[in-house]
Amino acid sequence: MSTVTTVWILGDQLTAGHAALRGHERRDTRVLLVESQARARRLPYHKQKLVLVWSAMRHFADELRAAGWQVDFRAEAPTYRAALEAHVRRFRPRRLRLMDPAEAGAGARLAATARAAGIADVEVVANDMFLSDAASFARWASGRKTLLLESFYRDMRRRTGLLMDGRTPAGGRWNFDADNREVPPPGHVFPEILRFPPDAETRRVMRLVARDFPDHFGTLDGFAWPVTRADAERFRDDFLEHRLDLFGPYEDAMVRGERALYHSLLSPLLNLGLLAPLDLCRRAEKRWRQGRARLSSVEGFVRQVVGWREFVLRVYRHDMPDYARSNALAADLPLPRFYWDAETDMACVREAVQTLLADGINHHIQRLMITGNFALIAGVHPQAVNDWYWLAYADAYEWVVTPNVLGLSLWADGGRIATKPYAASANYVNKMSDHCRDCAYDHRTAVGERACPFNALYWDFLARNRERLAGNLRMRLPLAALARRPRKDVDAIRARAADLRECLRRGERV
Ligand SMILES: Cc1cc2nc3c(=O)[nH]c(=O)nc-3n(C[C@H](O)[C@H](O)[C@H](O)COP(=O)(O)OP(=O)(O)OC[C@H]3O[C@@H](n4cnc5c(N)ncnc54)[C@H](O)[C@@H]3O)c2cc1C
Ligand code: SF4
Fold first, then answer.
1. pLDDT tens figures, 374-411
2. 275 touches ligand 1 (CB under 6 Å)
3. Cα 267 to averaged position of ligand 1 atoms, centre (Å)
4. C-beta of residue 263 within 8 angstroms of C-beta of residue 367
5. What is the CATH number of the domain that holds 68?
6. pTM of the predicted model, to two decimals?
7. Do 13 and 81 belong together in one domain?
8. Distance, CA 420 to ligand 2 centroid (Å)?
9. CA 86 to CA 229: how far, in whole Å?
10. Which domain holds residue 173?
């Protein structure tokens, strides 16, 4: 049967009730899904991410078929263009519909590819996988030099009605962050994380990825992500039942051997479209209303999902393409070797990168305060760092990785979204984690062979960027602390930092 309309669904648009399918009859519509090998080679993406996306696409195709849609699944296609041409030869569609991708500029690019493949009538429909909208954001952002989360977040709470009692925030406060800075006591037992052993389809994709992408980042051995909507929902419910209540208090903590603590690990599934953000937050709110999760945790979680997640998307869409090139601190170091192989004596960094290689994920504080903080204070080139986060994480897509890395983590955007650089010494790591206890380095010292590299690099970062940061109110205290240090101490610290940066530049072990 010939196809009248082709609906092209991308790998990160596996949402139920896809916007481009709406209003179409099943009999004269065919859904196209493409696994593009060229797209997968753009960066050496984590092998688990490739398996997650492709296996989820294959299971999504089954879900569509079961719902009565005709599906043309193009497995192992060399490029999008080749897949579209083959699709056109076979089905001769009269038009193609596509939902606007989250990636800036991709809608126009993909529409052009479809036209070049022989479909003249191409329509890009609005993306409804997010809760915020571009026009309201543009009005709010217009004329502002800095864009801060808080007023955006409050507006999102009002618009969605989440955690609202009429016009007032539930519990009388918008933000319970101050209640959320605890460290778990030694010996605290964390809930187990559900694992989903790969089914036959996922194992097929694992073999394919192992064969065609052997040099990509990470390992496939422990692949245990949910790849169907039903399993994603089980994973979500397990988080709501067993981890949400303590999500808040331990949100900023780091513990050796614990990849999740009380975090949800839901970002890969949200970003694929297997879970919907509003539904997820409503379920979290319900737990609080039923007295099964504390408000500080539920508010903290909702702030991440309808606050930060929506906020970074809007900043990215609003400020691209220039945003991706930003480098306000003129950082120029190449990415250190240990970001690829975890071969470092720094226990906190080793733990983060080892977990990442094994599971394709780190929690927020590891990303921000360990790997991100190290890159910031060492002065690693922002685009090299951004590429690494993009390729190494199972939940990374340009729209979410770029503002988090360049804005939140590296301050490369000059403070567009963060009130100060998140630069920290070993003092912070020691306070929020148990890593320093068993580290080869001494977290109390800044000078000498065994002094923690974070310390010398932190003071050196302040000294190097003193003038650039002088006008920032929130940097006054650290800069004053630097100014109080005796000159000869600062010189010794900066000499140690220069040695470290030279070792990193030469690719030597630190
Ligand atoms: C340097 C850096 C890079 C990051 N790269 C990514 C990325 O590639 N993809 C990604 O989804 N998140 C990224 N984040 C944000 C955040 O770290 C992850 O969303 C979070 O760690 C995912 O784990 P989780 O699902 O257990 O999160 P939880 O702590 O359980 O939080 C719940 C949800 O809130 C959302 N969320 C929380 N913080 C953010 C944020 N800052 N930006 C966007 N969404 C947020 C996520 O969807 C997350 O699943 C990055 C943060 C930093 C500092
Ligand atoms: S001593 Fe330094 S390198 Fe070692 S764990 Fe602590 S902060 Fe990390």
1. 999 999 999 999 999 999 999 999 999 999 999 999 99
2. no
3. 6
4. no
5. 3.40.50.620
6. 0.97
7. yes
8. 22
9. 29
10. 134-191+243-319
